[in-house]
């Protein structure tokens, strides 16, 4: 019997994982693929620091296997307040933080609470795909604001402001940015905060890569005393524990209804991963040497990827200032408007996997692809040699 599924569910797309299917088919035939598609440092030579793993194990052994409070462990929320004060000069209130199973779950609560049918959410163009999918899932419209490639993918503030309508509910900032690796200047962030304040709109600030920043991180939540914001962050990237599924959403004080709408959703999923919360607490209180080490490694790989990709005829790329992503432009005439074909042809001919730029937004992502520079330079070198050979052989 055919079962009708909702139209809502048909709107869900996730290019990053959708491309894994053809790659798996090749692997089943015995082909070895260089995967530069998924932003998971732990698939490469990065691992969760031992002291954080030990805290997780300790929580398990000490019977912290119960359902934690739906809002999350109080000490963890308090530690987040301290961390944000110290690193990002952001004033959080522990009573307004909800610990979630990753930023991903926070997006579910947030858009579930904010978006009515036909509402608009302003997102960067290009953008990390779940922003688009979650907004659509709740019947809203993700509206991309242009980020300017020739200016290192900085947001175009005039464009952003022109996109604000009566139906706009929030402005999303992802800084450092996935997929472009851009780090927004303080001036740009201040301008977005000012626009948001002028239209009385909240800022949703995704800072999951805050300490994977090769410049200095500035949180937009620190730039205005009376701005409304929702800050998102978690353990996945900076603390190298993506599979543990722990993150948080922190709401500024002037958000009683939104907080209530989110915490009620948090209650129906009972709680976030309990031992993971103890591990996150240890991560926040522990040494930060691993962060410096990770950045040092990534910076070297970033420099290599940026130089090497720019040397390939038919490609050009802006320099990422944060994250571990690079977002080159395809200038080769055969693929300049067909990035999905580029990614699929490269996969089938050279066994290197990227993600098509259009998967991050048709308007501003098309004609690009996203790669990660997480592997060692030797592996990156091999992958880029194959890309070069592939483009040379393409008429
Ligand atoms: C910008 C951005 N936000 C959120 C996430 C997911 O975060 P989490 O693992 O906390 O769900 C990612 C993962 O790649 C990301 O790039």
Automatic annotation (TrEMBL):
InterPro entries: Ala_Aminotransferase, Aminotransferase_I/II_large, NHTrfase_class1_PyrdxlP-BS, PyrdxlP-dep_Trfase, PyrdxlP-dep_Trfase_major, PyrdxlP-dep_Trfase_small. GO terms for molecular function: pyridoxal phosphate binding; transaminase activity. It holds the Pfam family Aminotran_1_2. Its cofactor is pyridoxal 5'-phosphate. It comes from the Archaea. Keywords: Aminotransferase, Pyridoxal phosphate, Transferase. Its EC number is 2.6.1.-. Residues 32-370 form the Aminotransferase class I/classII large domain. Belongs to the class-I pyridoxal-phosphate-dependent aminotransferase family. This is Aminotransferase.
């Amino acid at each position: 019997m055919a079962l009708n599924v909702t139209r809502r569910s048909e709107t869900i797309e996730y290019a990053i994982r959708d491309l894994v299917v053809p790659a798996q088919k090749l692997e089943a035939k015995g082909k070895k693929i260089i995967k530069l598609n998924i932003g998971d440092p732990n698939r490469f030579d990065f691992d969760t620091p031992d002291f954080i793993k030990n805290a997780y194990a300790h929580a398990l052994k000490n019977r912290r296997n119960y359902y934690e409070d739906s809002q999350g462990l109080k000490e963890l929320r308090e530690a987040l307040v301290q961390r944000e004060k110290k690193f990002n000069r952001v004033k959080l209130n522990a009573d307004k933080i909800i610990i979630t199973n990753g930023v991903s779950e926070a997006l579910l609560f947030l858009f579930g609470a904010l978006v009515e049918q036909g509402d608009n959410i302003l997102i960067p163009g290009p953008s990390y795909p779940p922003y688009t999918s979650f907004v659509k899932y709740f019947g809203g419209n993700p509206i991309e604001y242009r980020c300017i490639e020739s200016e290192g993918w900085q947001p175009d503030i005039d464009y952003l402001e022109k996109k604000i309508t009566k139906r706009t509910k929030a402005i999303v900032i992802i800084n450092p940015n996935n997929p472009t690796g851009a780090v927004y200047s303080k001036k740009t962030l201040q301008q977005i905060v000012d626009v948001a304040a002028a239209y009385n709109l909240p800022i949703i600030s995704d800072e999951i890569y805050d300490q994977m920043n090769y410049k200095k991180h500035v949180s937009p939540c620190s730039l205005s005393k009376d701005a409304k914001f929702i800050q998102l962050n978690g353990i996945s990237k900076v603390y190298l524990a993506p599979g543990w599924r722990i993150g948080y959403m922190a709401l500024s004080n002037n958000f009683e209804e939104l907080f209530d709408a989110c915490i009620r959703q948090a209650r129906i999923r009972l709680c976030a991963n309990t031992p993971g919360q103890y591990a996150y607490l240890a991560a926040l209180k522990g040494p930060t040497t691993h962060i410096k080490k990770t950045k040092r490694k990534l910076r070297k790989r970033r420099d290599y990827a940026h130089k090497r990709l720019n040397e390939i005829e038919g490609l050009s790329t802006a320099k990422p200032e944060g994250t571990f992503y690079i977002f080159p432009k395809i200038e080769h005439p055969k693929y300049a408007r067909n990035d999905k074909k580029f990614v699929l042809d490269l996969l089938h001919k050279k066994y290197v996997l990227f993600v098509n730029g259009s998967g991050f937004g048709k308007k501003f992502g098309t004609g690009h692809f996203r790669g990660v520079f997480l592997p060692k330079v030797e592996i990156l070198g091999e992958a880029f040699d194959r890309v070069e050979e592939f483009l040379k052989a393409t008429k």
